[in-house]
Amino acid sequence: MIANRFRVSLRPFRDADLDDVIDYASQPAVAQAANFPVCTTLGQGMFFLRRLQMTGRAVVLTTSQKVIGNVCLYPIFDPDQGIDEQKVELGYALNQDYWKQGLGTQAVALAIIWAQEAGYRVIEAYVYQDNIASQRVLEKMVLNACQHQRSA
Prior knowledge:
Blueprint: E1 8-11, H1 18-25, H2 28-34, H3 42-55, E2 56-61, E3 67-78, E4 82-94, H4 103-117, E5 122-125, E6 127-128, H5 132-140, E7 149-150
Parallel strand pairs: 4-5, 6-7
Antiparallel strand pairs: 1-2, 2-3, 3-4
Helix pairs in contact: 1-3
């Protein structure tokens, strides 16, 4: 299995992950890059965790089992055709303490496998124009970040 070579794995979120979720979701740079509000209180963290439990998977360090981020798959809605069963939008966030270590690339690779196993044929992702590191992650995964940029 490909995940055996990776330093991260994906799994469903658990209520016990709350402290780890708040740890990365309280970092302004992470929240801004992933387009979610900063979560600094227990209530905000629990609300965010509940959303992640519906659409996402925890990014977990294989050595310590610490949750260091999330990947999410969001249905794509077309106003004329409804939800496209073949397409999904990929979103992800990673604790800033783990940036620039290749872990985001590994998490996205595993998320692509997850999406394909779920039957999606088209995976879209959007990044802010100034988020060069995220653009590089997507380019490594053969997603063209140049065509999928979100303006600030």
